[in-house]
Write the structure tokens for this entry.
Amino acid sequence: MKSALHVPQNSYSLLFLAVLLVSSLTMAQVNLPTGATITPTAAPGSVFQKLEVALPDYPNDTPDGAETTAISPDGKTLLILTSGYNSNFDVNGNYQPADSGEYVFVYDISIPSAPLQKQVMQLENERAFDGIVWGPDGTKFYVAGGADDDVHTFAQTGAKWGEVGIPIALGHQSGQIDGLMATLTETGPTAALAGITADGNSLFVANHETDSVTAVDLVHGAVLQEFDLRPGFINPAQSGVPGGEFPYGVAVKGNNTVYVSSVRDREIDVLNFANGALSLTTRIPVSGNPEKMVLNAAQTKLFVVAANSDALIVIDTTANAVVAQVNTTAPFGWFGFGNQVPKGANPNSVALSPDETAAYVTNGGTNSVSVIKFFGGQPFVAGLIPTGWYPNSVSVSPDGSTLYVVNSKSVETANPLNCRYAPNGTLGGGFGSSCTNALAQDGGGNQYAWQNEYSGFLTLPVPKFFDLFWLTAQVAQNNGFNFQPSWNEARTMAFLNRRIQHVVYIVKENRTFDQVLGDLTNGANADPAFTQFPNAITPNFHNFANQFVTFDNFDDSSMVSMDGWQWSLAARAHDINEKCVTVNYGKGGCQYDSEGTSRNLNVAEPTVADRLQEQPLLAEFYNIGPPEQYFVDNLLPGTANEVAADGPEGEPGQGYLWDAALKAGLSVRDYGFYLDLGAMDVREELGIITPTLTNPCGANPPIQVAWPAVPALLNLTDLCFRGFDQTFPDYFRYTEWLREFNQQVATNTFPNLTLLRYNHDHFGSFSTASFGLNTPELQIADDDYAVGLTLQTIAHSPYANNTLIFVIEDDPQDGADHVSGDRSLAFILGPYVKQGAVVSDFYSTVSMLRTIEDVLGLEHLSIHDAGVAPMSHAFDIDRDCDALPGGGSSCWTYSATPSSYLYTTGLAPYLPPKPALDASTLPQTTHTAVWWAAKTAGMDFSKEDLNDPQALNRIIWEGMKGTPYPTTGSGAELKRGGTPQPESRQVDRNAGSM
């Protein structure tokens, strides 16, 4: 539960009454790893249910990624389309097409308040990306096939709906321009939303990854035209001008006017359709990143939702101009009059009431529906309604009485069958076999992060005025609107703000709490049955937990790296990223663009000349001449990234931790964050950069190994610090950071904020790994030691008494945990941190960011970190901490301990001498590098999460020998001598957990 909601004194006094009313109500609340809570059944008369399907091997499967709802023209049928991970694997780890795909749920809503499920249609082994649209006569509907690059047609036969004919292929890979796109950027097509003409003869599909719209002749089932939206392809005189990129939403006026939302370029493109061909009419600039759209009945107004600006935008379709806009986050005054509203509501769908006096907008980021009324044509937010976690779509019954809302996420519980990288936890022999038992019991485990997610369907009567009033207060309380820390929290953070001048923020990869710290014996809620990398392998992580604070109730706010890097640095993920991540990690579609690059291009470089210098293969491609050269000139011109977070005042792409620090006048240094890995890959292929190049700045001339992919980081990044690369030891990342740190000590220029990335706990590249770090246990031991050495260096430096070190995993996707698949590692280290403590407060990624912000005096990044308490219980400000004359602090110190495993590797000469070292007694890895390399042959470890996680899991499972992997907890429940989980986990994690 959050602290009591604080409302500014200049807000309406009635708001206090609403808060008091909410505080007196009793309802199931669920903690989210974002720090918020949800209460999806708060609205009177609401009904909330899982979406379930009956599959051949899973009779009660619960798909994730419910994205779009659509009501038939006669108002009697509701469709729900999923666009998620939705992939299952058999006991041998093989992909099961019959148990995988996307789904269309069909509900009879003849009685609006009681939708009756009539049918679930599986798009077996097929993909979808949000696009579903009814034909105007209601006899057919159409689904856009996402990365399958096609359109499916459904019709009714008797009482049943089913697919008719073969899918209409959109044919992008065969086109010259699209073929160039696929070759150069490794980006395939992704068919997004679709719109249909009033006569039902023509369909238009937004091609999200190929910057075009396809016109489809539905009468003959054939493509009429692919129309490229980019200015340079429409008019050569505009070559190199941004426009039309990453199209997503489509709305069609009559038979001749098509509106398309361009997410990246923040515009609505207006197209004319005549004689089977499209042409550009105009471009309407809008704030934020426009997505879904809907026309009113007369088609005189177009209503557009836009993330980043968190707005509902109203466009006059006669003048093709914006005529109104409103922030959908909350009614006016809920953040104080004139105060800035934090970013992150992520409005992502809109529906109009039948009488058009109200618009309903789903706020994915704040788990609510915004009820918007109109006064003199101008919209205002009348109130908010709580929903499940991350609502994506809302529809309104024809009589206006009922809302239908679907959401895509659920809260993770224990995931004992995750079975990724699962050693047995023994101290002497490394890894043991893990998942044979689990596979036999549960068809391959199928508890990978996204497989544990499921969607929800909320039916609720449109609230009455008074109900809407207190429901708004409930949403505000759920999200911590105007949250104010307690007196003790504020006192602690003010104290630290006065004494701490430097923060080192270390982000690592992919581990759960039990996976590493399950063998703790300090009273933490840990289960040794799930420990995969115990104290013998990760001695420093264990020392951190024992010497400082163990956070045994800490959740990562993300699921995987694609959303994890956004949450870890912006305290939110953009809506289009939330939509893309599940399909990207599932059956394909959408690019991984959340670490700066866009379609594998470095858009931090603003000109083609800059990009050609950075990317040799691009230059080689460019020099071929037309049409390739012309294509490169028009390939994502400008520096925009379609998933980038805006700053608090709407500064495009400037909503990250480093932006907040720079805005506050602080110094920043980046080591490995948001880099263009492709530029390094090419130089590795050319032999310019090798895995043994440990001191690139020591070469003459220095060899660049890092290329920043964000404009703000171009001049803040250590170009000799190697980014994500599993062939390269974290130890030498540490020595490069140390090289600069020694210079900073000598010149007293240690930055206020250091961004430091260690990533060797991700694993991979076993055949090409350098210095013998070629098995999972050796790679994480290397990572552990690098982090330990960083802490040791600061502990013995002049900055020991005014520096805090924060360590986090960007996501928890690769491990099992007996409490929650979201529970992960987090450390706060340095002065004023409690010693030998276990802190069980429910904290998350955004809690850590809030703490860093409060320590450094930064603006909050989003509505999420603004609404949670800092991690103040980690600190003891009454400790006597004084700087020592020779460097160090009187209240803390640290000495790094290398794992004994590392003495068997090429790092041994760099490690402290070990007394009486006997090679025969050193722990040995389970298998050799040759074994691991053979099993992972053909896999791509050049970037995070490129490989099929289930296939990689199977390889790791096969390599483990020993005791069977546990399918349940050990029952030890070590927390405080056998008591159950911490109280803050005692909320009903199933009631409303969607």
Observations:
- The chain has 20 helices and 40 strands.
- The two ends are 18 Å apart (CA to CA).
